[in-house]
Amino acid sequence: MRPGIRTQEFCGELGPGRPTGGAGSLVLQQFGGGKRADQRQRRRKISGSPDSWGRKVLGVPDGPHSIVAVATGQMLDRYWASGTVLSLCDIEGCPLYHHQPWSLNSPEMDFRSLPKIELHAHLSGSISRESLHDVWVDKIKKGQTTLRDPLEEMPAGKFDYDLETFFPLFSKYIYNLCNDSASLAFTTQSVLQDFQRDGVIYLELRTTPRAIPSANITKDDYLKTILDCIQSFNASSSMKTNLILSIDRRNDEATALQVVDLAIAYRPQGVVGVDLCGDPAVGDVSIFQPAFEKAAQHGLKITIHFAEAPQSSTPKELWTLLSFKPDRIGHVINVPEDVKEEIKKRKLGLELCLSCNVHAKMITGTFGDHHFGWWKETGCPIALSTDDVGVFGSSLSNEYALIVEHFGLDRAEICELARDAIDIIFGSEEDKEREGSFQIWINDKCSCQVADAIPQDKPTELQHQPINQPLGGRFYLFLPETQFLSQACRNTLSINHNHGHDHNHNHKQSSSSNNGDEEEDWQYDMDEPEEMSLDNLLHYIGYTGFPSQEAAHILTRYIESGDTPKAGKVSLYMHLLKNASDTTSNEEFEDRVMQTIRLCDEITNETGNCLLPHEHDAEDHFKHARWDVEQMCKVKFGENYQIPWNTAGNGGEGQQNQLVGVDFDGGRLQYQPRGANEWQLVETFMELLTQKPEFLKEAFVPVIAARNAEAVRRAAVARDAIRSNQMAAQFGGMSFGRNDVEEEDADEAMYDG
Ligand SMILES: CNc1ncnc2c1ncn2[C@@H]1O[C@H](COP(=O)(O)O)[C@@H](O)[C@H]1O
Question: Which listed residue, 205, 408, 547, 676, has the most CB atoms within 10 A of its CB?
Fold first, then answer.
């Protein structure tokens, strides 16, 4: 086990459960129908409860599903990087409704959390400036380029590329920078990562096969490099990507056919279609007829840049393009009436790109004037798309936000829009089905609820609901609570006390192998006052290396968000970061850590956020962990599966087969097996975890271990005043009392509808 990293919370699934009045009780969502009346009844009761922080904190948690993962340290990076985490929350400091896109009354949607489908994205145009810069730095070091720094060539905030300046950006700059296998692979990877981080769950990336003679790269090599990246990304992430090959309008007929041949050859590796793109001012499209005919014959799907510029929107061109029988068309700007009618008749999929069209002045006017407004009424499925996010700087989430801002779509319409794209993906039926399961997220409005506290002492009261429907929900990652930090410190300390032990060893093993020396057992007494001691911090930082760069990046954003309680904690972490990174001696390091501890106190005093550890019952931790695994195994092996626990309780003799804790560590199960049966368990759990997408869809149980229940609740209470002010502001001064009534109506409408 990697020392110091323990996840105190688990992935769990919460329904619109909320406290039923009695402090600490929790109602989990009953999946499936038939419970409507009960739910309403419950809601009614809950709404009336002044203590229901489900209501106060979260607004109206209306959707049935949510998955909550709470993690510490490097977990943050890992999940973030893997894209499992679509959004960040922070129990302690962050008003959760900021991340509550789906709350019925919430005026705000978190578009990054919206599962999105991106169907029109050019690979080279999607590379972020930062990634280009990284490539450049590397090449400069190696003396391999004389190009300007991408951050100068494409300065931050510059998006006003028009069609005259846009195309040369590729031919004269980006292609010259990304001109070997390493840079191709690096930038492709970064593009995939960026889409995933933006909450894209299915991506059809497109690229023009490009030979790079200077690096001995053929078009075939180019494609292999890109497809390799995609395949490995697909294998390790929850986002699925397929590839479309682009024919450039500047190509001749033979080159176009060559692209189609490549697409045919690489279909098994994930090429799903062919595109026609490139400078609309150039070329006679009729020469591509044989290429598209061949593509269609071989079952490839077709998408075409359509009516992008006045020059490329002559009736002759447009009807020629329609004769290629495209499945989707992109941009679709300058379209005469008769062609519009034909598009409507065929119900062609439309890839519409707001920011690109506005920034490149491809439309007259601005966002509100975009033809999205017109097409949305036509019944043609629309896939909102980014085109070239690296150039135009607007992520898909942002495109959704723009749509809401300028076209006033309400939540249902936004969901509809997100869902629309499913039907027009070029991927397999399997892909569609996969997206279909996300449709349920959208349908269910993806309520993202934070873990209502589960009573620590009553894990068995949780209602376990086997899942026979696709998963709805998402991972949420909460920035580490200080109590987690403290726990991590303990663990680290314990390991430290058992120095010499392999880090893969578990605490429990350590503690039971050291003759039950209670002093050295990582478990601790609840009554003992807890402190984040210097030692603890040192060990924590030393072992975990947290906060890392990625974490720092995220935290910086949090600071920038200006949310005071949040920023309070964030600054603590920033201090930790400093402590960890730029000290040159142990003394200096220790000094910094002391400062951090003092800062921690100050923040606590100033913000009311308890940054020092909360009490935590280790015994409960075991109980919950054990319960978690039991539920997992029941899902896997059936309800009657009995885990051969040999003992109960913790520590001491006779604990040989005791489950001592289950932690995620970057998706690895951390668990100390003592016998064959337990290895089996480990394997099971591991298997479930590594097959996460399916596992989550098919088998995830509402395993929730909100072991910091009390802490959360207390934190919620402590922040109540701040929150209600903020909420009042956010909800236009609406009183929560009145909201209850509306919420009730809205619920009914939702269920009746
Ligand atoms: C205004 N929107 C657009 N219209 C037409 N073609 C576009 C485009 N955006 C990008 N491309 C095409 O995609 C290439 C870059 O990606 P790849 O090297 O293929 O990955 C550009 O050279 C251009 O031909």
Answer: 547
Region of 44 (left: φ > 0; alpha: ψ -120 to 50; beta: rest) is alpha
Q: Please indicate whether residue 241, judged by its CB atom, sits closer than 6 Å to ligand 1.
A: no
**Closest among 84, 70, 188, 67 to 131, alpha carbons compared:** 188
Domain 118-440 in CATH: superfamily? Metal-dependent hydrolases (3.20.20.140)
What pLDDT sits at residue 688?
Answer: 40
In tens, the pLDDT along 682-704 reads 344 334 434 433 332 222 222 22
- Spatial contact of 291 and 260, defined as CB atoms under 8 Å apart: yes
Choose one of 132, 170, 243 to mutate for the ligand 1 pocket test, by most ligand atoms within 8 angstroms of C-beta: 170
What is the arithmetic mean of pLDDT over 535-558? Answer: 36
Which residues does the annotation mark as catalytic? 308
DSSP three-state, residue 445: coil
Distance CA 727, CA 244 (A): 45
- Distance (Å, whole) CA 321 – CA 307: 10
- Structural contact between residues 500 and 627, judged by C-beta atoms closer than 8 angstroms: no
- Domain range annotation of the chain: 12-113+443-481+617-747, 118-440, 495-607
Residue 357 CB less than 6 A away from ligand 1: no
Beta-sheet pairing, 328-331 with 301-306: parallel
The burial of 85, by beta-carbon neighbours within 10 Å (0-12 exposed, 13-18 middle, 19 or more buried), is given as buried
- Ligand 1 in contact with 283 (CB < 6 A)? no
513 vs 218, which has greater pLDDT? 218
Distance of CA 284 to the CA centre of its chain: 42
Angle at 554 between CA 534 and CA 446, to 5 degrees: 120
Q: What mean pLDDT comes out for the span 339-358?
A: 97
CA–CA gap between residue 51 and residue 490 (Å, rounded): 33
pLDDT on residue 111: 72
Instruction: Retrieve residue 704's tokens.
Output: 């929730």
From the list 159, 170, 164, 165, the residue with the least C-alpha distance to 132 is 170
Distance CA(684)–CA(97), nearest Å, equals 36
> Would you give the end-to-end CA distance of the chain in angstroms?
49
Question: Distance of CA 335 to CAs 248, 276, 289, 299, Å?
Answer: 21, 17, 21, 28
Element (H, E) at 549: helix 549-560
Atom of ligand 1 nearest to the CA of 388: 9
